[in-house]
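hey can u check if this looks right to u? its 439 residues, i copy pasted from the old doc so theres a chance i mangled smth
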Amino acid sequence: MTGGSTPGAASPGPAPRPGLGRTFANVFTANLASSLGDGIARTASPLLAARLTDDPVLIAGIGAVAMLPWLFFALPAGILVDRMDRRRALALAAGVRTVLAVALVVLVAMNALTIWWLYLVIFVYGVCETLYDGAIRAVVPSVVPKKNLPRANARIEGAELVVQNFAAAPLTSALFAVAVLIPIGGLVAAFGLAALLAALLPAVASGRQFHAAATEPVVPFRRQLADGWHFIMGNPMLRTLWFVSIPVAILFSASGATLVLFVLDTLAIPEAAFGLFLLSGALGGLLGSVVASRLARRFGLGPVMAAMNLLAGILVLLTGLFPVPVAAIIFFSLGAATTTIWNVLMMSFRQAIIPGRLLGRVHGTWRTLLWGTMPIGSLIGGALALIDLTVPWIIGGAGITVLGLVFYRFLMTLPNPEDIDNGDAPPPATGAVPVMPAA
């Protein structure tokens, strides 16, 4: 008898999900080295600022200066990402940041570092970040099929959290209390290694498969500045999502602008333990990266994003209303989880809906207003902190919660990445991608 099952035979279990591939593993490893440098820099910068000044406005300026390059350089960086070999873009960004780290070591060693020199280093570092961020986000969809984008982005996000917070943050803050030069010297090694690994990525990560044919005319640089804007404005889902994200980003920036002072002064947590406080956020973020793709598969990308956006605002508000160490650690950790889930699914959605040839330009346009306006939030947060260090959290959290309620129904309608067709062929050996018109 054929076609039937053998009596008593155990039914096979569900087939294991295929891996993300060796090429993604190479991209993943290269990004780890850069993430280590980012973790050291993000922990050391506010600590350096707190040693140079106790003015909350100047300290809030660290966050403003770090985000300001996105307002001026995200668009040009996006065009470069779409024009040049994306491996070279990654290596160039990491290489310049290596030079910046060397300059910072010299300034500290000569006791010549001032808050203004620190501002300059952070600003140039941010310029490099616009190029690196655009390139790494554009590389992933060229090596991973759409249905696996949430899983790939979750792994990248989770690994960044582990390296930056479980390794870099506590070690940096502890070593900072011993000798400032030790963690700053680590920046040189981390970014130098990142530049080398990026240059050694395989050819499929270059993005050349999306370049225009040699017979097509080359579009002038200045005309490409508007390509990202036109694509976003022509896509109703992206357009609305963009305008939702901008005020939310400003409010998040305001709430965390004086985080270091909130932790050290309001919560009375010692400087050497600042990295451990950040570690609680890393734990929550790591949890978010683990469950993000699973929640999206179970409930759908849109419903999960709607719930996370609303919950994030509530947790920020609670942090300001209950400024005691235990409560703040719990709210900070859960808030990091919701933010990570949102970031993973947001990036997966954008990578699925934007054609590969436009990823750099659309990403640059998106970041220009999204991250470029965050310095406004940082300055607002610094001004509100003059009243009380809890006020930025209360105002920011209340605003995010209101926006979460207003746009809840819209976010619920966002489709899953595999249900979107952006016109690109799937990556090699990944199979077909389900189709739905993008706009």
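Residues 22-209+223-419 form a domain with the Growth Hormone; Chain: A; fold (CATH 1.20.1250.20).
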